[in-house]
Every structure is written in C-alpha cells, then in structure tokens.
Amino acid sequence: MSSTYDVVVVGAGLSGLQAALTLDAAGLRYIVLEARDRVGGKTFTLRSPETGAVQCDLGAAWINDSNQSRMWALANELGLETYVQNTAGNVVVQDFDGKLVKFPYGQAPEYPSAKDTRSCISIRDEVERLSLTQSPSILSAGPYRQHLDSMSFETYLRNAKVTEKAFATAQVWTHAMLGVDPSEMSALYFLEYCAAGGGLMTMRSDQKGGGQYLRIRQGMSAFAEGMAGKLRPGSVELSSPVASITQKPNGTVSVTTKGPLSQTYQARKVIVSVPTPVYKTITFSPPLPPSKTAVVNRTRYGFYTKYMVTFSKPFWTERKLCGLAQSFIGPVSVFRDTSLGDQSYCLTCFLGGQFGRKWAAQDAEGKKSSVLKQISDVLADGQDVTPWFIEVHESPWMEEEYSGWGCPCPVMPPGVLADGWGALCAPADNLHFVGTELSPVWRGYMEGAVTSGEKGATDVIAELSRDEVKAKL
C-alpha cells in the first residue's frame, strides 16, 4: 500500500512535531512517522500507572520564560503549569578528598587554596567570554575557529594552565551537560555549544534566564502530546520505524517503514528529524553525500544517565541546602532537587563520562547503593538516607535505538565541526534535516529542537513554492 503526501516527517520528537505544525499551518499534506509507540522523542515523563501523577522526567526537564521564547510560548498555549527550580540554600562541592565546600547559590566556592579558587573563576570567566565574544567570534569562519577545533577541550584547559581543581570543575560541566570527558570533544564544540545557549553561565544557571529555571507540573511529555493534538487527526503514525528513504529520478521520495505493518509513503520532500546516530539505521538511496556522511560518522554520544531518587522527606532542605551539588570524585557529577512539592521529594543525579561508565559496570543494587552513599555524604552530612528512600528511576536512552543509543546531544571530536557544520545541516536534494543538535540556538535543548523544526519546515515550504512557480512557467 502506498500513500502520497507533500512532505513526510521522520520522527515525532519536538523538532518533527514543530515541523509538522508549520507544514499544517501552510496547508500542506503531511504525515509524521514515529518509530516508538509514543510522541516526544527524548522528552519522556514517567507517570504513576495507578494515579497518572508525574513521577519524574526521564529526558529533558527544564525550560525558562526569558530566552527560550518558543518553549515558553508553547507552555502558555498548552496551558501548562510551571514550577520554579529551587535555589534557596547552599550549594555543595565534594572535593577530591571527600570533604565538602558549601556556599550560597550564585557565589563561587572558596577552596582551601586561594590559587584553586582563582583558577576555577578564571577558566569559568574565560569560557564565558569566548562563548559570547562577537569579535573575533568562534562562530565566524577563520583561523581562530580552526585553531579551537584542532584540539580537545582537555588540551585547551591544559594550555590555559588551570589547576587540577579547575580542571575537575570543567569536567563537571562536560559530564553534566553532555556526558563526556573534556578529552572526548573539541574545544570548539564545547565553546559553540555554550554560545548556542547564551553562554556557559546561562546554561549552568538554575535561576531566571538559566537553562534549569522552570519545570512543568504536568511533565515535559505534555509538550509533545499537546503539539501532536494540534495536528490533523491521523497525521502521526506511531510504531512506524523508517527502514529506507529513496529519492527517485522523477523528483519524488519514497519512504518505507519496517515491521509487520510495513508501508511505503510517497512525498515531494522529506524532513528527517532523528538524531544523527540514528541515520545509520536508515538505508538512504542514493547514499547521503560523502561530505555529510563524513561528519555524521564522527558524531557520537558520551555516557549520560539521569538517575532519579525519590525520598519521603527533603532532608537536604532541613540542612539549609538547595539540593544542587557537584562532585570531583563521583559517581554522580551533579545533583539537583527536582521535587514538585507533593510529599514526594526527588533528587536527579547526573552521571556522565568516565564516572558514569565505571558506575554502570555494577549491578542494579550496586548502582543504587553507591548513589545513596554519595547522597548521604554530600547532602546529609554523612547520615544514612536509606530510611527515607522510596524508589529510583534511571533514564533509558543509552539502550534505545531510536534515540541513537544516547542522550542528550551528540558531540564531535577535534577536526570535525569547523569544516563540517555546513555539510551536517545541508539538505540532500529533497531531504531536509532538523533536530536540536543542528540548532544554532539552545543546541541540545527543547528550544533548539523546535527552532530547528520550524526552520526546516519553512525551508521546505519555500522550496515547494518555488517548484510550483517553475512548473507554471
């Protein structure tokens, strides 16, 4: 059986759904093919099977109401209720020797060595400056951009002669933001990632304007569910993984799904809105351009897991802690309080890079006990927290094929981004590519996804209009 459309959208994450909404507004015929049995991609709210109450967000979990204008508009449009991230109280740093350094949110930690304190502040400020400076901008083609892409972020840090404590601080950033060690991506990639989110300080902030300012009481899945609900009924096909995309000599594209209900769809254009590692699961005919494939084959996820632990009481707030903590020894690199004030108190633990890989080698009980021990040490003054433990949930992304076996955003090693960005984002004849990792703003975030999806659909609409004009001449 074959169906014909103006556009087939592959993937019903936020970028694909936004692309479909833009196509819908333009009056085009479209279909969205989603491999999973749900919409939302890497946004996924776990809800209680008994009550439907939100338990936790296994994927993306925050927006803000100032510089994430698309997500804020969607939240209002869909009538979603926001909850401000808690920053009242002290932040904690777990040092190399396990000792704790506590300080008010918004200030810098003061270490026993003034040299360490100065080095941490200096590298933070330098990364912020580079990610925001307009002249010379890291986003402008030229020798400066090439130079930053020629080295790993670790080499960049070593060249800056940071102390080991400052290096560990930067490693906390890369673990929590991308799940990689500083050695695993180019300096340019990390700096550009920060620039896309308004700078390192904005991306790391839990306060107004920051990357972790607002959560949604209904859960982040409410965004995708609400967006899908605005589309033409029947326009989203779930459990329809795409097996092949074939561009034909007559200018049409054939998209075939796999599985017991395999179906083929014909279209004038296709918008591919899956993460780049997922491209390898689709047979493209003809193959994607070598310039694009060369970059796609070098994008990779790090090790990144969110481990959400629920307790019967917020023992950290009783100790005048806000729940934000970071560690130089792991296994958890960053903790955040993700309670929703409903008598169920939650800490989200970010495990990434080498710390996460080592932690993941344990069995389920070992993983849980090591995290609870660290929570006890860091947020409970050493008191055993197991009496208050209720349950734990671990994000599934590294085991999920349709996310590309990872989260939150693929990174690039040295020597790829500076010359490869244009090819990565470029269309391939009648195929257009969207997704948060291809966004110039808030890359890796939901805001980046919807921005990219809208731009991709707008480009497709413009091309179809030009084609119709040509056909009339």
Automatic annotation (TrEMBL):
It comes from the Eukaryota. One of its GO terms (molecular function) is monoamine oxidase activity. It holds the Pfam family Amino_oxidase. FAD binds at S15, E34, A35, V242, E437. Residues 14-461 form the Amine oxidase domain. Keywords: FAD, Flavoprotein, Oxidoreductase. Substrate binds at F350. It catalyses: a secondary aliphatic amine + O2 + H2O = a primary amine + an aldehyde + H2O2. Its EC number is 1.4.3.-. Its cofactor is FAD. Belongs to the flavin monoamine oxidase family. This is Amine oxidase.
